[in-house]
From TrEMBL:
Family of this protein: Belongs to the methyltransferase superfamily.
Job of this protein: Protein-lysine methyltransferase that selectively trimethylates citrate synthase (CS) in mitochondria. Seems to conduct trimethylation in a highly distributive manner rather than in a processive manner, and thus introduces a single methyl group per binding event.
Domain Methyltransferase, first and last residues per copy: 84-172
Organism: Gasterosteus aculeatus aculeatus
Cellular location(s): Mitochondrion
Keyword Disulfide bond: no
GO BP term, example: methylation
Protein name as catalogued: Citrate synthase-lysine N-methyltransferase CSKMT, mitochondrial
Catalyzed reaction equations: N(6)-methyl-L-lysyl-[citrate synthase] + S-adenosyl-L-methionine = N(6),N(6)-dimethyl-L-lysyl-[citrate synthase] + S-adenosyl-L-homocysteine + H(+); N(6),N(6)-dimethyl-L-lysyl-[citrate synthase] + S-adenosyl-L-methionine = N(6),N(6),N(6)-trimethyl-L-lysyl-[citrate synthase] + S-adenosyl-L-homocysteine + H(+); L-lysyl-[citrate synthase] + S-adenosyl-L-methionine = N(6)-methyl-L-lysyl-[citrate synthase] + S-adenosyl-L-homocysteine + H(+)
A Pfam family that the UniProt record links to this protein: Methyltransf_31
C-alpha cells in the first residue's frame, strides 16, 4: 500500500470507527476520480466531527512544510492588473490556499477549486467564521466547485501564474478509471499557465515513474514543451510521515524559480518534455 493510500486508510478508519462506514476506504481508493465519492468522504468526515472544532484535512502535509517551495515562485513582478493568480486544484479542505492568501506579500487572487461542493461549502464556512485576513490588502480568496478536467471553462489560456497540485494527480492515477482524467487535467493546467507560470505537483509516486508519465502525456496531447524538475521534499513532520517529491513544471524558455536554485537535491536534472 502506498503512503498516499495508507494515509487515506488511517483517516477513513477514524471516520468508520465513529460512523461504522467501513466501506468508505475501499470506495475512495478505487474511485477517487468520482465526484460522488468525494461528496461522501467530506460528508462523513464533517458529520463525524460535528461536535468538535473543524480541522483542515491535509494530504501529505500542511503549508508550513512546503512554504519555502511555494513562496519564492510568487516573488515576481506583478502583472499590469497588479495581481498574481494562484490555483489550488483539488483543494478539498486543505488550508494551503488560504495560507498562500495570508502570507503572500504580493497581491494574489487565490482560487481553491474542488469537484465536491461539500468541501467547497465547508471551507467557505470556515473562512467566514475565522475572518482570515491577507498579508496584502489587495489579495482575494475564493472557493469554487470545479472539475479539474474542465479548467478551460473557468480560465482562459495563459491566465494563471501558479497552480498547486497536492495529491490530486496521485488520486486520479490511482483510480480505476482516472488515468485519462489525470492526462486531461495536466493538459488543462499547462494551457492555463502564463508564459512565466509554474505547476507544482506534490506526489508520493516514484519520481522516475511520474516523469515518464508527464513526458508521455505531454507528447500525446501536443501541449507546449515545459521544463520539469524533481525535488525531494523528504518526510515533513505530519501525522502520516509520508515521504514525498515535488515536481516543478515550467514552460520552456522561462527562468526557473528560486525553489530550483535553492534546493540542490534534484534527480534527475531538469529536463524538457518533448512535444
Amino acid at each position: 500500500m502506498s503512503p498516499f493510500s495508507r494515509s487515506l486508510t488511517l483517516f477513513c478508519g477514524r471516520i468508520a470507527a465513529v460512523r461504522c462506514h467501513s466501506s468508505l476506504t475501499a470506495e475512495l481508493i478505487e474511485n477517487m476520480d468520482k465526484k460522488a465519492t468525494w461528496d461522501r468522504f467530506y460528508t462523513e468526515s464533517s458529520s463525524s466531527s460535528r461536535t468538535a472544532t473543524f480541522k483542515n484535512f491535509e494530504w501529505f502535509f500542511g503549508f508550513d512544510a512546503v512554504r519555502d517551495f511555494i513562496m519564492p515562485l510568487l516573488r515576481t513582478e506583478p502583472h499590469p492588473d497588479g495581481v498574481l493568480r494562484v490555483l489550488d486544484v483539488g483543494c478539498g479542505t486543505s488550508a494551503l490556499g488560504p495560507s498562500i492568501y495570508r502570507h503572500s506579500p504580493l497581491p494574489v487572487q487565490v482560487t481553491c477549486a474542488d469537484i465536491s461542493p461539500i468541501a467547497v461549502r465547508l471551507m467557505q464556512e470556515q473562512i467566514q467564521a475565522k475572518d482570515i485576513q491577507p498579508h496584502n490588502r489587495s489579495s482575494r480568496l475564493e472557493f469554487v466547485e470545479l472539475d479539474c478536467t474542465l479548467l478551460h471553462e473557468h480560465y482562459g489560456s495563459r491566465s494563471v501564474d501558479l497552480i498547486v497540485d497536492k495529491g490530486t494527480t496521485d488520486a486520479l492515477l490511482r483510480s480505476k478509471e482516472g488515468r485519462r482524467k489525470a492526462g486531461l487535467m495536466l493538459t488543462q493546467c499547462l494551457k492555463a499557465l502564463r508564459s512565466s507560470g509554474s505547476l507544482l505537483q506534490f506526489s508520493d509516486e516514484d519520481p522516475d515513474v511520474r516523469l515518464l508519465w508527464l513526458e508521455t502525456e505531454a507528447r500525446e496531447s501536443g501541449v507546449m514543451a515545459a521544463d520539469v524538475g524533481v525535488q525531494e521534499t523528504g518526510t515533513p513532520p505530519c501525522a502520516f510521515q509520508v515521504s514525498t517529491t515535488l515536481l516543478l513544471i515550467q514552460r520552456l524558455g522561462t527562468k526557473r524559480g528560486a525553489t530550483a536554485e535553492r534546493h540542490s537535491r534534484t534527480w534527475p536534472p531538469f529536463k524538457a518534455l518533448k512535444t
